[in-house]
Amino acid sequence: VPPTTPMCEVPSSAMTGTVVELSCKETEGSPPSEYQWYKNGVALLEKTGAGSARAANITYTMNKKSGTLLFNTVTKNDTGEYFCEASNGIGSSQKCSVKRLQV
User: Coiled coil located at which positions (predicted)?
Assistant: First the structure.
């Protein structure tokens, strides 16, 4: 079963230095969907190892299985337009509407 449009939860604003979690979920897809977050239209990298993450200055953890995007300490650089895409290899992937996070 192809995925349906996912529900995205993005806070509209956050204080610098706080923990912020964005979530993305859809329940119709079978097999279960994997989720990819985008910021300003660019796919966010999954944190694979400490080395590559540090090199790219990644301040978040993206979980493709659960659909969460977790910022341990947000900075002004994290302000932007976010959306997520659900895909499970069947049919076309589905995106939620873009939401702006202001830090």
Answer: none
Q: How far apart are CA 79 and CA 82, in angstroms?
A: 9
| Domain residue ranges in the chain | 7-101
pLDDT tens, the chain, 103 aa long = 999 999 999 999 999 999 999 999 999 999 999 999 999 999 998 765 555 555 566 778 999 999 999 999 999 999 999 999 999 999 999 999 999 999 9
Q: How far apart are CA 1 and CA 35, in angstroms?
A: 16
The domain made up of 7-101 is a member of CATH 2.60.40.10: yes
Q: Do the Cβ atoms of 78 and 59 come closer than 8 Å?
A: yes
